Structures are given as C-alpha cells and as structure tokens.
Amino acid sequence: MDLGQIEAFVQVAQLHSFSKAAQSLQLTQPSVTARIQSLERELGEELFERGGRGVRLTDAGEAFLPYALRILQIVKEARDAVEEVRSLQLGHLRLGSALTISTYVLPKILHVFRQRYPGINVSIRTGRSEQVLQMVLGDEVQVGLVRAIHHPDVDTIPLYEDEIALVVNCDHPFTRRQRVTLEEVAAQPLILYDRGSSYFGLIHSYFRQAGLVPHVAMELDSLEATKRMVEQGLGIAMVPKVTIERELQVGALVEVPIADAPPPRRTIALIHRHNRRRSRTVQAFLEVLGDIYRLQPASA
C-alpha cells in the first residue's frame, strides 16, 4: 500500500468518478484504475461498485475511507511540520554551556534568540568547559559555550573577552582610591572560589607572574557565595566582570582598578564538531551570536 493508491482511492470516493479523479490528480484514467485495482488486490476486497450511475463505495470501501482520509491528513501534517522546521518555526537546539556562562551570559543570548525564533525549543546541559567539550565530541549537544579550547575535532569561534575584575564592598578602604597596586591587593584577605575551575588557576597565575603570593582568607565552591562574602566585608575577590553587573548597579560591590597589572582575561568561544553539517537551528543560533558579538558570518 502506497500513498499514490490512497490518494487515488480518496479522489474517486469523493468525486464518484475515475475520470474526474484522474483530472484532479493530473494522471491518466488508466493510471488511476491501476492504482485502485492494486489497492483492492492488496486488501482482498473490492472498494467500488462500477455502474451506469457512476462509482459508489462498497461496504469495504466505506469502512476504509475514514482511515484513508486520516492517513492523508497525517501526511499533510508531517509535510507542514517539515516546512515549519525549514522556516525555523519549529526545531530543537541542544546546547552545552560552562557554568558561569550559563548563569550570567546565556540568558541574555537566549532572550534575543527566543524573540527571533519562538518556535525553537532549547535544551541546555552545563558543566566545566572540558565536560562541555566532551558533550560536543559525543554529539550529546550540537554546540558549546566555553572558554576557548583547541581540539582537532572541533571548530572554535571566539565570542568575547572575559575580563576578571577586583571587587570590594562599599565600605572597603580601596573604594577611596582611584587605583591600587597588585602588591596591595595580595596583602588583602582574598576570597577564591571553585578550585577545580579555570578561574582559580587564572587568578593564582596572575599573582605568580608578578612574583606575589596572595593572602587567601577563604575558598568557596560557589561564585554567588563568594560575592556575598565580599558584600559582608569578609574579604576581597577577583571575579568575571560579567557576573557582577547587578551588584555594581545597586552598589553592593565596587570595582577597583589595578594600576600596575592589566586585568586577567580569557576568551569565551562557541565550539562545534569540525566538518559537521550545521542544522538550521544551529545556523540560526550562530546568526544571533553574530549580531550580538559582531562575528564574521559563519558559513555552513
């Protein structure tokens, strides 16, 4: 049983004529007849009574008609669904993201993406950058947002520079200074977070390159907890600048420039499998990122 047979059956049933059905389907009448006969042989029953007054459904034909109509409706819905995917009215984007990016950067990106493509569902998996890389390599996600990682099996598209900022609470003596030295920062009680993250190593390397050993007063496993500790005056911290926008706006934290050492930075990038054809949803996501970060247009 094929779709052509079912279409021919429905047209004959609705038009009560083989010749009219042939015209509607843009086929010859013998072709329509052949399709009906083939369908009848497959079902083992005659579907039409041929008489001088035209064509009528047999009991078997009457029983088969609602199912045939349902099949054609399902096929139409399936074609419509594919067209909606083609036009990005429907779809699914599987995204992996490093933890800090998913919390502080991704919501703004997805706000723009959802406004432009409201029918595309997004599923997000989070982890450290190395874990997200493995998700991409294992096809668990289509793309990942991570610190820039170089791997022969992925393409890396830089998005922005993640700057690390020194923050203190609003009553700290540093707030009365326009700039401080890194040596002065090292002498302050420093709160570090997430020993397993790349930020931890980046901050330690920042002091080590200047020949300084920071006074570490506290280690936490949460960036949010770190910021709250600084707000309470329990120490100072160096945190990604994108994570403190709200605290700076309300005055809960104050950013203090360091005079004698440029702030540490790291590149945040999108990664995807090398030589893997991008789906329409991935291409749409790349275009949104291009608009936000002024990337070069990504080719498929």
Number of helices: 12
Mean pLDDT: 91
Briefly note the CATH topology name of the largest domain. Answer: D-Maltodextrin-Binding Protein, domain 2
- Which stretches of 5+ consecutive residues score pLDDT under 50? none
Apparent shape = rod-shaped
Q: Using the 3D structure, state the CATH architecture of the largest domain.
A: 3-Layer(aba) Sandwich
By DSSP, the count of extended strands is 11
The span between the termini is 39 Å
Q: Say what oligomer this is.
A: single chain
Radius of gyration: 32 Å
CATH homologous superfamily designation of the largest domain: Periplasmic binding protein-like II
The share of residues in helices is 40-55%
Order of helices and strands: HHHEEHEHHEHEEHEHEHEHEEH
Structural class: alpha/beta
Profile the largest sheet: 7 strands, mixed
Number of individual domains: 3
- The fraction of residues in strands falls at 15-25%
**CATH top level assignment of the largest domain:** Alpha Beta
In short:
It contains twelve helices and eleven strands. It has helices at 3-15, 18-25, 29-43, 59-86, 99-104, 106-116, 129-137, 182-187, 198-209, 223-231, 245-250, 280-293, and strands spanning 48-51, 54-57, 91-98, 120-127, 143-147, 154-169, 189-193, 215-220, 237-240, 253-255, 265-273. The two termini are 39 Å apart.
Keywords for this entry:
300 residues, alpha/beta, Arc Repressor Mutant, subunit A, D-Maltodextrin-Binding Protein, domain 2, 3 domains, two-stranded antiparallel sheet, 46% helix
